Amino acid sequence: xxxxxxxxxxxxxxxxxxxxxxxxxxxxxxxxxxxxxxxxxxxxxxxxxxxxxxxxxxxxxxxxxxxxxxxxxxxxxxxxxxxxxxxxxxxxxxxxxxxxxxxxxxxxxxxxxxxxxxxxxxxxxxxxxxxxxxxxxxxxxxxxxxxxxxxxxxxxxxxxxxxxxxxxxxxxxxxxxxxxxxxxxxxxxxxxxxxxxxxxxxxxxxxxxxxxxxxxxxxxxxxxxxxxxxxxxxxxxxxxxxxxxxxxxxxxxxxxxxxxxxxxxxxxxxxxxxxxxxxxxxxxxxxxxxxxxxxxxxxxxxxxxxxxxxxxxxxxxxxxxxxxxxxxxxxxxxxxxxxxxxxxxxxxxxxxxxxxxxxxxxxxxx
Length: 366
What we know:
The chain is α+β, with helices and mostly antiparallel strands and 366 residues long. The chain is 35% helix and 19% strand. The strands form 4 sheets. It has a 5-stranded mixed sheet, covered by helices on one side. A 4-stranded mixed sheet has the order 1-9-10-8. Strands 2-4-3 form a 3-stranded antiparallel sheet. The chain is globular and about 65 Å long. The mean pLDDT is 95.
């Protein structure tokens, strides 16, 4: 029987913070950070800054500039896969699964539906591949839109966009770059490194291992998340957390590591807080992204930034970058726990650092 590690909540929180590179020792650069975190999530909302850049700044500080991420993508050291920026070498962990799309063995009803829909639109799929072969990389608007069977959509996507998403999952096309906010599409073989695909079972176990290394502590099985799971299967070793029900898996390399915390402002999409259930269980922290709520129903703001202090999440900063006005508007600093004078000063320093990194002046909302 493997050893079951028994952790206090403080132990568990520190493992999570260490894993996410949010402790006192900053990583050596964007690529080492990306390899440890396994991904940087892209999101079109940039109320303060694009989320991937904000996550990198939280780890690297003001030595990081967004051009570093663009350069790494242009040089194919990082690759965009399904709105996640991943180390180029990690793509080999997905290629075998792509080749098996929509899955092996008996398919679920949803898998059959997706397979049949793509087959029904095979003419459009082939036309897209031919256009990319001859002219790529291309933005979506320059690709054929000749789907014979429309995608049943709630308004978030159209047929061509959905077909491109499935073609990504099939390993046929990939994002080759961006022109402004437009993704540029090309044949996957021109974008992905020519590394041998890792067999499916081995690749899933390795992805679980890397995910646990990035999270520090996670459930063996958990709720389903789109694109990137939050659970880790049998990776690591079993653990119990005092005051929290159920079993966890922990990366044993992070146990008994000296912890030196710091204060940090986080993206709402930061992996430390992305799994809201885990955040509540380990940090006893209540958080929701409220930009989709009517203004009158928001508790913390449109794009409130979680505040990490040591191994605790202690508040939220409601801020917005007004780039035309040249200011970072700070609407409120919400204190989940009463701030000491020292903590308040550290939070203000982080806000000042954020404004300086953005090249903006601080403006306090009336």
